[in-house]
# Entry
Amino acid sequence: MRLRKKPWARPELESCNFVVTNPTELKGKWNEFFKNDNEIYLELGCGRGKFIAENAVMHQDKNFVGIDIKDEVLVYAKRKVEDVFRDNNKEINNVALIPMEIAFIEEVFNKDEVSRIYLNFSTPWPKKRHNKRRLTYTTFLERYKKFLKPNSEIWFKTDQETFFNDSIEYFKEAGFKIEYITYDLHKSDFKQNIMTEYETKFSSMGMKIMFLIARL
# Structure
């Protein structure tokens, strides 16, 4: 679906103190931005921000970075973070949102700077010639390994079974160990799930959500 251009989105993002428009300048210096040495959890494709906002307000001993390419989407993530923190009477000090193309992620983080990656309902790119664009594809996983700490995790959710099965093989090929896997997350024993906007919509339609945790 093509998003309508919102000329007010970029100025609103640029005026926000937890939106980072110059992320490459913070490579290796994220502890200075957050003013602590807490672990960094990274969501690639944070959408409208429900997941990262609820996660960050619940786990304030972690730092959360969300990336999305569209200003028109990220501006709603910014507002969602503000709303959730305000509703919980918390100060926003462990969130950063970045408007950028995920393909350039290596330019943003240094070696051992990230402890966990979340991939929530990434584009499945079903045509074989487009598989290399998948965020779980082996070449992307090799990029992530350049800044993931040893023993770190990738949490992956999707409603697309072929994409999920292919991704299992990508993780194995890249040297990750599958530590947890379910083909029906909402009926599983996994208790730490936070639903995204897409997930709420899909599950209301009776669609099964697949989930795994891969450890490096």
Q: What stands out?
A: DSSP finds seven helices and seven strands in the chain. The mean pLDDT is 95.
